Amino acid sequence: MKNIDDICFIVQARLSSERVPRKMIKPFAGSSLVDIICKKINNSSIIPKTNFYFSAYEKEIKSIVLSNDLQLFERSKKSAFSEGPMQEVMEYHDKLNYKYSVVISGCCPLLKIETIDNFIKAYQNSNYESMFSVIAKKNYFWNIDGELITKWPSKADVLNTKLVGKTYEAAHCLYAGRLDTIKDGIWMAKPPFRKNSPALFEIPEYEVFDIDYEWQFNTAEALFINEN
């Protein structure tokens, strides 16, 4: 079991998105993606506010974070505009005095704080050094060579999704791992990943609606309004 005092919690955001310009502060259901994730953090039952850092460079993001009474990590301009390496993007890795970090995406407005808290509890109570969010798919998948990689259900003679087992897809919204390995270019676990490195944590597919494109922004906003 990990001591909560050894874990920091990070949300990182920037305004240099090209596909949806300034999406993190763009008006979204009467709010913004930054404001929504900040309010979730404040409603967490497990995240100590002293352990939480919102990594940001632009003053517009900082202003929203501070209005929610949350702590900032002063992200550099270089990091905010970087696409890699990871040590540059995650520049807090050698500046925060913690053993582990949990990184939370701010681009999934439907992600519930209860799901975030359950992920943290599972990580804290596990013996695994890393954990990653996934969604379960009951479907059939082929590799690039056209070979079926899904185990065929023994009782099926057609593509029956009711009988097929689960395959897990990366959810890209909750990540956990050691901070000290980032300096060596390792986040969560050394690739190629193996079983339980990182350990997988299943979350509801509906909550993982990620925003990369304008149509996703508009769809997520409609879903969020309906949900709330």
CATH topology: Spore Coat Polysaccharide Biosynthesis Protein SpsA, Chain A
Question: Helix share of residues?
Answer: 10-25%
Structural class: alpha/beta
CATH superfamily: Spore Coat Polysaccharide Biosynthesis Protein SpsA, Chain A
CATH domain class name: Alpha Beta
What does the model show?
It is a single chain. The protein is an alpha/beta fold. The chain has one domain: Spore Coat Polysaccharide Biosynthesis Protein SpsA, Chain A (Alpha-Beta Complex). The protein is built from six helices and seven strands. The chain has helices at residues 33-42, 59-67, 77-80, 86-89, 113-124, 214-227; strands spanning 7-12, 52-56, 72-74, 100-104, 131-137, 167-178, 199-202. The protein has a seven-stranded mixed β-sheet, with helices on one face. The longest helix has 14 residues, at 214-227. The model has no long low-confidence stretch (mean pLDDT 96).
Question: Brief description of this entry?
Answer:
23% of the residues lie in helices and 18% in strands. With 228 residues, it is an alpha/beta fold.
Secondary-structure blueprint:
Layout: E1 7-12, H1 33-42, E2 52-56, H2 59-67, E3 72-74, H3 77-80, H4 86-89, E4 100-104, H5 113-124, E5 131-137, E6 167-178, E7 199-202, H6 214-227
Parallel strand pairs: 1-2, 1-4, 2-3, 5-7
Antiparallel strand pairs: 4-6, 5-6
Provide keyphrases for this structure.
alpha/beta, Spore Coat Polysaccharide Biosynthesis Protein SpsA, Chain A, single chain, 228 residues, globular, seven-stranded mixed sheet
